Structures are given as structure tokens and as C-alpha cells.
Amino acid sequence: MSTLLQEKSVVDSFRGKKMVSSSTYSTLFVLSFTLSVVFPITGGVFYEELTEAISMKLVEKTTHLHFYFHDVVSGKDSTVVRIAGPPESSGTGFGDTMMTDDLLTEGPELGSKIIGRAQGMYGVSAQHELSLLMVMNYVFTEGKYNGSSVSILGRNHVLDDSREMPIVGGSGLFRLARGYALAHTVKLDMKTGDAVVEYNVYVSHY
User: Fold this and answer.
1) Which residue in 158, 122, 155 sits closest to 137, CA to CA?
2) d(CA 117, CA 29)
3) Which of 94, 206, 187, 152 is nearest to 198 (CA)?
4) Burial of 141 (0-12, 13-18, 19+ CB in 10 A)
5) What confidence tens digit (pLDDT) does each residue in 65-74 have?
6) What's the pTM value of the predicted model, to 2 decimals?
7) Model pLDDT for residues 82-102, shown as the tens digit of each residue
8) Which residues face 122 on adjacent strands?
């Protein structure tokens, strides 16, 4: 209160004079600075660094996920749509790009328990071999990880028995995720393109 009264006294003095001395300006400046320190004005900030103490509370763990991916290209219940590609397809389909909403299940059968969906896209990224660029979110809808997801971005050389792709992120319980996914084709119909792929995913997260 004494600081506020002192400021009021200085302001009243200022109003009663036509000319204000340099010492009065100095006093006003000091008072304004003091009040700004006592009552700081906060605004938006562009970034904020976490302290080491907060960071140390995060404990990293690794989770193993096992499921089956059903890529249904043919029929009325297709879960894949071609969204881009060259006017004339090459032998490998180079440039063809598909958007997917594929089922993820506990077992290899399509009627097995659904545990999530693979939503994203893949495109044929090689001119002389069957290799895909995978840009995919695996969104889980069952159990503890309901609402969480992991994101894959990598090369999928389809005809290899086992393919490794990186996990580049995640959401929910998989926030700040990193790791890798191992894919193994269980069934592939070369005529329709329908496929069932087994996934073993190892995710490090907090």
C-alpha cells in the first residue's frame, strides 16, 4: 500500500505543475519498474523448456504388440481405394497410391476379434520391384490401448519374408513412441491383391 500511495503522491504533484523536473521522471520510472516486478504481466510464449526434474519423472518402457493386418482390395467390402497413379501402369504399378482403412485383428481370420484399424496410405515406390512406401497410423480400439495409436513411415519390400519398418511416433499411451514393426505376409492373392499380414511391433514409450 505504501508503494501505491507514494505513486499517487507523485502523480498528484505532476498534475499541479506545468513543468516536471527530471527527478520526478526518474521517480515515476522507478515506481513503474517496481510495480512491474511485483505484479508481472504474463502473455503467450512461443516455447517453454521442461526442467530436468520434470523430465526425470518419465520412465521409458517397451511394449510388444501382435496382430494381423487385412488389406482387402477386391469386392464390395474393399477397405482400399486408389487415390493416385500414372495413366499407364508399369509392371510393378510404380506410382500407384492407395488410401486404406484396414482391419487389425487378433488372429489371421477376417472374422477374428477386431483390435483396431490401419488408416493411412501406401504407394508403389520402386520401378523394378514390388516395394511400397508405408505412411500409416495403426489406431487401437480395444483394451488398455483403446484410443492410442502408433505411426509407421518406411519401406515395405512386399515379397521379402520379413520386413522391418520404423515406428516414428504415436498418440495416447504411445505418446513419444519410437521402435520398429516386423511384417510377415500370411496370405497374398496375386490376382485380387488381397493380403493378410502378421505384425510384431516393438514400441518404446513413456
Assistant:
1) 122
2) 63
3) 187
4) middle
5) 999 999 999 9
6) 0.73
7) 999 988 777 788 999 999 999
8) 98, 134
